[in-house]
Design a protein that fits this description.
Layout: H1 13-18, H2 24-35, E1 43-48, E2 57-63, E3 69-78, H3 91-104, E4 112-118, E5 123-129, E6 134-135, H4 143-159, H5 162-168, E7 173-174, H6 177-190, H7 201-205, H8 208-217, E8 220-223, E9 232-235, E10 238-241, E11 248-251, H9 253-260, H10 265-279, H11 288-304, H12 308-312, H13 317-329
Parallel strand pairs: 7-11
Antiparallel strand pairs: 1-2, 2-3, 3-5, 4-5, 6-9, 8-11, 9-10
């Protein structure tokens, strides 16, 4: 796996793993409230999720009083957002997005059994179905899974659930001009120690509106918001998208750009073909290339402009090299 793949929401995985999980009796009380039973009627085994990202989570094998056995993923999120500059919602927001997706009956979305407000900590729990499968970035043969993931998200964007959200009264995050420009401005601010090395950076800021214009002009659909391979499980022919706290109304190409970011050209191009065939069976519109390119540039700024320590570290070097190529195309180098 090349440098840069998966460099996204997983950055906060360390913090998620160190936050405490609920005590045994608290877990029993929460599950009982979700399933409408008494805590002493539940039998369960639990284990921490080693791949937890923004919020801590665990896997729970639970037997209900009627004999049903459920494999659950319990996710414990804060009621406040995580300081992601408007990129992510809180746990309650993610739960509302899951319910929106479930109402449409989309395949590939884990079932949300319910939510629970843990008063002592102020956390909101999501009690989700634990779906089978392996994350794409854990597979040895990743190309077929990548193509399947591209098809899945292309079909999601063809569905366009924004009207459903409006009917449900769900105020989805919207990617606006200020949202996009914020990442560019923070990147430049955080990169002050690099301004001498990248003399074109200030000039690039003057092209900011032109860089984001295709994203603002494109049709806006419900996007996952961090559709990276580590957020996608594959089980046979089935694809499951996890972690919807970054769902938003924006150009669909943002999901495709995230999925294919920093992958070999052959795999990325195959994903683009599969995505477009799934979203536009009659043929992709002429503007799709420009929107995809703008989406790819946005993700460079998105992760460079999140926090200063991410901007300056060695691991981000490939993003700076990619931005330098953007500057060269604009004649700034």
């Amino acid at each position: 796996m090349g440098e840069g793949r998966g460099m996204s929401g997983r950055e906060s995985a360390g913090a998620a793993r160190t936050l405490p999980l609920p005590a045994e009796h608290t877990l029993a009380a929460g599950l009982a409230a979700v399933f409408g039973v008494r805590p002493d009627e539940l039998v369960f085994e639990r284990r921490r999720n080693p791949r937890a990202s923004t919020f801590p989570s665990e896997f729970v094998d639970c037997r209900l009083p009627d004999g049903r056995r459920l494999e659950l993923c319990c996710k414990y999120g804060a009621d406040e957002t995580d300081g992601s500059h408007g990129h992510r919602g809180n746990a309650a927001y993610e739960g509302a997005v899951y319910r929106l997706l479930m109402r449409r009956g989309l395949a590939g979305v884990p079932r949300l059994y319910g939510m629970f407000a843990e008063e002592q900590t102020g956390r909101t729990w999501l009690v989700l179905e634990r779906v089978p499968g392996v994350r794409i970035d854990d597979l040895s043969d990743q190309a077929p899974a990548m193509r399947a993931a591209a098809v899945w998200v292309g079909r999601l964007h063809a569905e366009d659930l924004t009207a459903d959200a409006l009917t449900a009264g769900l105020p989805l995050i919207r990617h606006t001009r200020d949202y996009y420009l914020g990442w560019i401005r923070r990147t430049i601010e955080f990169a002050r120690p690099l301004h001498e090395r990248y003399a074109w950076l200030r000039e690039l800021e003057r092209h900011a509106d032109a860089l984001i214009a295709p994203l603002l002009d494109a049709p806006r659909v419900l996007i996952h918001g961090e559709y990276y391979p580590h957020n996608v499980l594959v089980h046979g022919a089935a694809v499951f998208a996890l972690d919807w706290q970054s769902a938003a109304v924006a150009a669909g190409e943002l999901d495709l750009a995230a999925l294919t970011e920093n992958w070999p050209e052959e795999i990325a191009e195959a994903c683009v073909r599969e995505y477009r065939a799934a979203r536009w069976p009659a043929g992709a519109p002429a503007w799709s290339d420009a929107v995809l390119e703008a989406a790819r540039v946005h993700w460079l700024f998105r992760w460079l402009g999140d926090r200063p320590q991410w901007t300056l570290r060695e691991r981000a070097r490939w993003r700076w090299q990619a931005l330098e190529r953007v500057a060269a195309r604009l004649g700034l180098t």
